[in-house]
Design brief:
With about 180 residues, the protein is α/β, with parallel strands linked by helices. The chain has nine helices and four strands, in the order H-H-E-E-H-E-H-H-H-E-H-H-H. Strands 1-2-3-4 form a four-stranded parallel β-sheet. The termini are far apart.
Length: about 180
């Protein structure tokens, strides 16, 4: 409350903005790039910050894009690898439902209704794995593979060239390498 009063900040969300802008200037003074989760779009964004769109389908990042900020799509509903990838009774304990291999492969970050300038600001996609429920390295490997391979292909393949059946055939040849 004292900081808000001293800085003339009226809203709590703007307190986060104050802090992030202050930290961003420091980080940038060290020659580094500022990156942050899409909660930063709830207030004034730091100059030149890159935003990770994670909530829901990642659309909060588009609020940053509308202001000219670059962004990375990492939507929890599609690219969080902490979610189950198959039947929950079979998998390491986790939370949040499912993100199947096919769902990851078929994810398309660029939507038809986007403002054309957004696509130019999209830096790419990111799969995220939070390990608070992982009890072993095997749990981590199970949650990552083969979905991280599908993520790689979606990141470098144009939607017109994606082919699920071809991907599955190639994966079958590669699976022994994962064992």
């Amino acid at each position: 409350q004292k900081r808000m009063k001293n800085e003339g900040i009226q809203e709590v969300e703007e307190l986060q903005s104050y802090f992030m802008n202050r930290m961003s200037k420091y980080v940038q003074s060290k020659g580094k790039q500022v990156m942050g989760w899409d909660e930063l779009t709830n207030s004034t964004l730091p100059k030149d910050a890159i935003i990770f769109g994670w909530q829901g389908e990642g659309h909060a990042a588009l609020k940053a894009a509308a202001q000219g900020h670059q962004f990375i799509m990492t939507p929890a509903k599609k690219l969080y690898f902490i979610r189950y990838q198959g039947p929950q009774w079979f998998e390491p304990f986790t939370y949040f439902g499912n993100n199947t291999l096919k769902g990851v492969y078929n994810y398309e970050p660029v939507k038809e209704n986007w403002d054309p300038k957004y696509e130019k600001l999209l830096m790419g996609v990111q799969g995220s794995l939070w390990t608070e429920f992982c009890k072993s390295p095997e749990d981590v490997e199970y949650l990552l593979f083969p979905r991280v391979i599908a993520l790689s292909e979606l990141a470098w393949t144009t939607p017109q060239k994606k082919d699920w059946n071809s991907f599955i055939l190639r994966m079958e040849q590669f699976l022994p390498e994962l064992s």
